[in-house]
Amino acid sequence: MENAEGPPPGGATDHQEKLMSTTTDLAVPSLAASVRPTVWRHGLAAATVASVVTTTLAAVASAAGVSFADGSGVSLPVLAFTQLTFVFSMLGVVLAAVLARRARRPRSTFVRTTVALTVLSVVPDATFGFDVASALILMALHAVAAAIVIPVLARRLVRNAATPG
């Protein structure tokens, strides 16, 4: 209820309230649409899943008779798969976070870099004196972990500076 002299003391006119409501309604959706899930949260989840999966597969392989012993007779304990998978997956998360801030094309740079690092990661499996079954299982476990972690992180990165992911 406005009087002839203007709006009531301390109150807003209907026009001002509508304008404020419209402005607020427009601002909230655009803010919500611009917020994306973090690389860290999804990376931590992917690292955890990859660790569980590789450890489970290593335990199954070990139960089936794969020794995971290198040329000197030292055998990898099953929990080493959990630890190593988690640590190296989290290094991938750090790499993704850095590339998200610094790379011109973070997604493609991340995928190319991590695929190359995964290929390089199997070199010790082939050269440290593991028997053929152990080496092949170790190589497969590297590929499994990469297949879990890399796509999750890549989806969180934009394709290039001009188009969001």
Report a brief summary of the structure.
The protein is an all-alpha fold. Helices cover 70% and strands 0% of the residues.
Please give the structural blueprint.
Elements: H1 14-34, H2 39-63, H3 78-102, H4 106-121, H5 123-127, H6 132-155
Helix pairs in contact: 2-3, 2-6, 3-4, 3-6, 4-6
Question: What this model shows, in words?
Answer:
This protein is 70% helix and 0% strand. The chain is elongated. The longest helix has 25 residues, at 39-63. By secondary structure, the protein is mainly alpha-helical. The relative contact order is 0.14.
Radius of gyration: 26 Å
Strand element count: 0
Query: What is the global morphology?
Result: elongated
Count of helical stretches: 6
* Distance from first to last alpha carbon: 50 Å
What is the H/E order? Answer: HHHHHH
What does the largest sheet look like? none
| Overall helicity | over 70%
Q: Decide which structural class fits the backbone.
A: mainly alpha
Low-confidence stretches: 21-36, 161-165
Round the mean pLDDT to the nearest integer and report it.
83
- Report the sheet-strand fraction: under 5%
